[in-house]
Amino acid sequence: MTNKKFSSLFLILLIVCCSFSIQSKKNLNLVFIGDSITHGSRLKDFTTQAPPVFATGYIQKKAGFGNIQFSNQGVSGYTTVDFLPATKKAWPKVIAAANNLYNDKSATLVFSIMLGTNDSAISGPNGAPVSAQNYRANLKTIADSLFNRYPDCKIIVNHPIWYSPNTNNRSVYLQEGLTRLQSYFDEIDALVKEYKTLHPKQLFLGDTKAFRYFKKRYQTDLGSEQGGHGTFYLHPNEKGAVALGNYWGKAIAKVLK
């Protein structure tokens, strides 16, 4: 009789523990905001090969996470200016995607942002060149607008990645652009620090390591393209998209653990 009672008690505890484990898993709704790098330009199939796909896959494999949905809102050629609500360019689609995911109240809504490549250009993209100060101001406007609509959301801002100093396609980047791109790092870091007071535990610094990764491995992880100043490297290839996605996924998982 005692053994039967013990077995029954053990079974009940096991069920309770399993139930708690299932309930404690975090469900996520991810919206990735970015440019052609986020979108997965120059990849054979961005729907299966873009960085957001691999970022989501990385998180899904980590313990503690449940159902994860994502929306890729990367747009080729876009800058922080294009994502400002006032321009009404990318913003309506971002909101539509977020609203669709926001219906699931069991999940945390997370915005992962990587912008800056096109902002840094000498000429070409909308608003370029965007100064470091204006870049930060634009990010702040985007973040504030997201928090106004989704008070409980999380925002993760990643450092933009390296491109070769001779990059010149329909837009002109070159060394001047690359130098300007790196000036954005301090602005992102300062913005994150500012939001520790404005929105505690809601806006976070994301990945900071991918820049160095691609600078070192550009010949294997970035696709070669022809431009006005010879062969340049800007967009991740299939291998690079996996690497970048994993960097983003690691950053998101760390923030939400």
Automatic annotation (TrEMBL):
GO molecular function, one term: phosphatidylcholine lysophospholipase activity
Signal peptide: 1-21
Domain of life: Bacteria
Pfam families cross-referenced by the UniProt entry: Lipase_GDSL_2 (PF13472)
Keyword Signal (UniProt): yes
SGNH hydrolase-type esterase domain boundaries: 32-241
Keyword Signal assigned: yes
Keywords carried by this UniProt record: Signal
Stretches assigned to coiled coil: none
Gene3D superfamilies named in the record: SGNH hydrolase (3.40.50.1110)
Protein name, per record: Lysophospholipase L1-like esterase
